[in-house]
């Protein structure tokens, strides 16, 4: 393992069994899929985040799930970066995104939070927006439903059917980012038409 190249991949979500499977926890679901691939288990850290370590092509990749509510994700992310000695340029934050239809996945470095309070908390705590985000489209709420209600609901039956393949695509993208860099990971993701 090359200890000089460490990555931190943080899934944003809300802790607790009542939030499992909700749209706002797409980030948790994506890092769970990566952990499953490598047989890694999350362990709770005193700093209030769950962490699992995997090795991707000789690189240490720490998967983390903040155990504070999503809008307060920033401090646990900063703590994890410091604990594992990961530079901000190798931080990847996986989040749900209302601005993309369900199933659209985008990888981007920098940019604003786009109304996502968890991403805003991370940017504020870091003091920079210069980190990579993997955004998982969840679509917009139907007419008459508030955003708050929509993101806290579980994925629909049809969405749950598609979810495993989409989470695999997220995991593939993170692996490509770590091993081949941002440009090639974006090309791989976009060529898949997702």
Automatic annotation (TrEMBL):
Oligomer status and interactors: Monomer.
Similarity-based family: Belongs to the PTH family.
EC numbers: 3.1.1.29
Protein name (database record): Peptidyl-tRNA hydrolase
GO molecular function: hydrolase activity
Site (Discriminates between blocked and unblocked aminoacyl-tRNA): 14
Hydrolase among keywords: yes
Active site: 24 (proton acceptor)
Annotated gene: pth_1
Transmembrane stretches, start-end: none
Subcellular location: Cytoplasm
Site residues (Stabilizes the basic form of H active site to accept a proton), renumbered to this chain: 96
């Amino acid at each position: 393992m090359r200890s000089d190249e460490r990555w931190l991949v943080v899934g944003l979500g809300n802790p607790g069994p009542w939030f499992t499977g909700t749209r706002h926890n797409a980030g948790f679901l994506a890092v769970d899929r990566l952990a499953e691939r490598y047989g890694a288990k999350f362990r709770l850290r005193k700093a209030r985040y769950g962490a699992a370590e995997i090795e991707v092509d000789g690189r240490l990749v720490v998967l983390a799930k903040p155990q504070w509510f999503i809008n307060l994700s920033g401090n646990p992310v900063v703590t994890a970066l410091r604990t594992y000695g990961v530079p901000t340029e190798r931080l990847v934050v996986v989040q749900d995104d209302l601005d993309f239809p369900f199933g659209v996945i985008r990888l981007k470095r920098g940019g604003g939070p786009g109304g996502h309070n968890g991403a805003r908390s991370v940017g504020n705590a870091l003091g920079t927006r210069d980190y990579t985000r993997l955004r998982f489209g969840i679509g917009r709420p139907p007419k008459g439903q508030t955003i708050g209600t929509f993101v806290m609901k579980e994925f629909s039956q049809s969405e749950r059917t598609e979810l495993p393949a989409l989470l695999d695509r997220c995991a593939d993208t993170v692996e490509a980012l770590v091993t081949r860099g941002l440009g090639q990971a974006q090309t791989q993701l976009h060529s898949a038409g997702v």
